[in-house]
Specification:
Layout (H helix, E strand, L loop, with lengths): L4 H7 L5 H17 L4 E3 L3 E3 L4 H15 L9 E3 L16 H16 L24 E2 L2 H11 L8 H10 L1 E3 L13 E5 L5 H13 L7 E4 L5 H15 L5 E2 L13 E4 L1 H11 L8 E9 L1 H11 L8 E5 L1 H9 L2 H6 L3 E5 L15 E4 L2 H11 L2 E4 L2 H8 L2
Parallel strand pairs: 2-3, 2-4, 6-7, 6-9, 7-8, 10-11, 10-13, 11-12, 13-14
Antiparallel strand pairs: 1-5
Helix pairs in contact: 1-2, 2-6, 3-4, 5-8, 7-8, 7-9, 8-13
């Protein structure tokens, strides 16, 4: 692999042992994937920060590297396993909280922004079209590639951190123009609306394709609907990029070969994933993190009612700050809705908190919550969740 003089200095240890180790990791990764060189990145988004996921070995690693390494580019954390300021209110065990805060402190010592979110593009980290970045969380990666037109592979936690520290990532995969072309056309001949509807569509699509990059016709939703659509495609199909006519920014060659998704396919998909429910221990919303518009829609749907089950809405600290200024946080929390920042239920210790069942409007949350926490999870539209559980 060709390295610039600056990259050689990093690899030779001129910037310290930790930087050398991170550059060595990136060089080995590049060798595996046949990268001919590195590319400079404009930002990084670092996954694997929940103590639930990384445990003591991961915590000790982060504390070790934070003694020397500092990030070279703007970097955000992925959601943690708890709200960093309100963890006691939601019953997070104290031992977990203490170690989770040590993880966050280690990263902030390195210069990572003390903001943990899967939607950094809603909190000021907005890549330019064509900009190379190193993001790790699956929904953030597919949004950055597809909606924003940035260039990133789906990084692992260590490689994203290495990219943040070195400002580099190997030039392979979706950084290369030729690897971003669609491979299959999907014609959607059905009306789709709402985050739930787009989750069902994404599930139906991933039953038809494997890892081919799709080009969609007939798919056009709001930014929040497309955010949820991409998150579910990534969760069920391991996709990191899609193209959609009239929505995504890249000019590509439309494949001749096509698959049709109609009302029949959507009904069959919905029958596979939707179950009836009358009560749950918890409502979990915000996977990916909610925007201001999504929170306001929830408030409108409630129309003065309150939930009889506790509701956790996950969002970035920046979005929560906007809602606080508008007085909406208090209004929602009077209705049994907690607006929680910096966290996600998927990586929270729900399995030791007595939570056995939950409902969500996110296909991604529906996919992962049972696997990570053993929680019986239902998928439904936001409108139906309000109708079933609010009074």
């Amino acid at each position: 692999m060709y390295l610039t003089r600056e990259e050689e200095k990093m690899l030779d240890g001129e910037y310290g042992e930790t930087v050398r180790r991170f550059m060595e990791l990136l060089v080995k990764l590049g060798d595996i994937y046949g990268a001919e060189r590195m590319v400079e990145v404009g930002s990084a988004q670092i996954a694997g920060i929940s103590y639930k996921n990384i445990g003591d070995p991961g915590l000790e690693f982060l504390e070790e590297v934070s003694r020397e390494a500092r990030v070279r580019v703007p970097a955000f954390m992925n959601p943690a396993g708890m709200d960093l300021s309100r963890w006691k209110e939601i019953g997070i065990p104290e031992e977990f909280a203490e170690k989770q805060m040590r993880v966050v402190r280690a990263l902030t010592r390195m210069g990572v922004f003390p903001a943990a979110t899967c939607t950094p593009y809603l909190s000021g980290l907005l890549p330019r079209f064509g900009e190379h970045i190193a993001w790790a969380e699956s929904s953030a990666v597919i949004y950055a590639n597809s909606i924003l037109g940035a260039r990133t592979n789906r990084e692992g936690g260590p490689s994203a951190l290495a990219a943040a520290v070195t400002g580099r990532t190997p030039y392979y995969g979706l950084h290369l123009e030729e690897n971003r072309q669609p491979q299959v056309r999907i014609d959607v001949e059905a009306k789709v609306k709402g985050e739930y509807g787009f989750s069902v569509l994404a599930y139906a699509v991933t039953k038809q394709i494997k890892k081919e990059i799709p080009y969609f016709r007939g798919v056009r939703g709001s930014p929040d609907e497309m955010k949820t659509f991409g998150a579910t495609l990534a969760a069920y199909g391991a996709l990191a990029l899609y193209h959609a006519e009239g929505v995504t920014p890249e000019q590509v060659k439309v494949p001749r070969e096509g698959i049709e998704i109609g009302e029949k396919e959507l009904r069959e998909a919905e029958e596979e994933i939707r179950e009836e429910y009358s009560d749950v221990d918890l409502v979990v919303l915000g996977c990916p993190h909610f925007s201001v518009a999504q929170v306001k829609r929830l408030l409108d749907l409630l129309n003065g009612r309150s939930f009889r089950a506790p509701v956790w809405v996950f969002l970035s600290y920046g979005v929560r700050s906007i809602l606080e200024r508008e007085g909406l946080v208090r209004e929602l929390e009077e209705r049994n809705v907690k607006l929680l920042s910096d966290m996600c239920a998927v990586v929270a210790p729900l399995d030791v908190m007595g939570i056995k069942s939950a409902v969500t409007n996110s296909g991604k949350m529906y996919r992962y919550l049972p696997a990570t926490n053993g929680v019986k999870t239902y998928l439904d539209s936001l409108e139906n969740i309000v109708e079933v559980l609010a009074e």
